[in-house]
Amino acid sequence: MKKVLLTFFSLTLVLVLAACGNNNNTNNAANSAATNAPAANASTEPSTEPSAEPVTLVIGASPKPHAEILKAIAPLLEKQGIKLEIKEFTDYILPNTQLAEKELDANFFQHKPYLDDQNQKNGTDLVSVTAVHVEPFGAYSKKIKSIDELADGAKVAIPNDATNGGRALILMAKNGLITLKDDTNIASTTADITENKKNLKIVELEAAMLPRQLDEVDLALINTNYALEAGLVPTKDALFIEGADSPYANLLVARPDNKDSDAIQKLAAALTSPEAKAFIEKEYQGSIIPAF
């Protein structure tokens, strides 16, 4: 009898342990399945890659009108993932120096004769990307209302850089104040004057200084960007001014290594867009003329 009871107890214990083992295995399997299964509310769609960082272009420009035009077309470029960082310069030297040294990605302030002259003088190879606008060059005075009032021996100020100085002399020749050997030669200097009936005293000054010298001279020939900065309205205040056929279109300038980049080409397209043309025509009322 004792043997029968012992055998029965042993069998019962084995069955209980087997049942516990099965329950543990079942629970482990369930837990594993729950862990590996996707959550009920989790999306099974692949995650979207983050958008690319915007490209930043650092552009050197004269405050007026160049920086203003760049600011006007900046929203067009932002939609294309391009951000403009505009550095304003009040001189004509540093924008080219910093572009050549890759501190700038491009600049916007100069015409081709000036660019060619600076490349030759400085051994650089900066290149035009596109022509944007023409700034008709004008003559201004606080002392006279007409060039007919210009007295014998009057003091006339012109820019001292080679191309703008020649441009000023050509404009003076076309308005009968002097005669030049060749009134189409952009490289003309005072040495090329063959006739000066009024004995005008021509002084050469840095272009940026000319508006500030209007009280000191009888007449000054001033680049339009500096005239605008001084509050002058070229179409109203200039005693005489270049026509719309001026060949001195202001350029977007870059380097050979980046001129064909996607960002620079998009900037060029924005600067010659219908939006840019509308801004120039409305904002400057003929003082600046689109070149496209």
Automatic annotation (TrEMBL):
Residues 1-18 form the signal peptide. The keyword Lipoprotein applies. It is found in: Membrane. It is a lipid-anchor. Keywords: Lipoprotein, Membrane, Palmitate, Signal. It comes from the Bacteria. InterPro entries: Lipoprotein_NlpA. CDD domains: PBP2_lipoprotein_Tp32 (cd13597). NCBIfam families: MetQ/NlpA family lipoprotein (TIGR00363). Belongs to the nlpA lipoprotein family. This is Lipoprotein. It comes from Paenibacillus helianthi.
